[in-house]
Write a structure and sequence with these properties.
mainly alpha
Length: 63
């Protein structure tokens, strides 16, 4: 769904931006009828949420 969003680009989001994106993805997931979009939005919310919960110095990209 988001082929242009790579691991490196996700690291460039500030904490505030990541939280805003999570809210927008939640709204998208709630409002869409497409199961594919709902699933992709949920997966991205989970990934962003995991990064927000981890201390900044402990994050290491997955190879």
């Amino acid at each position: 769904m988001f082929p242009e969003v790579t691991e490196n680009r996700l690291k460039l989001l500030s904490e505030g931006e990541a939280r805003a994106v999570m809210v927008l993805l939640g709204i998208l997931g709630d409002e869409t009828r497409s199961e594919e979009i709902r699933q992709a939005a949920g997966e991205l919310r989970f990934r962003l949420g995991s990064r927000l919960a981890a201390p900044a110095d402990s994050y290491r990209p997955v190879p």
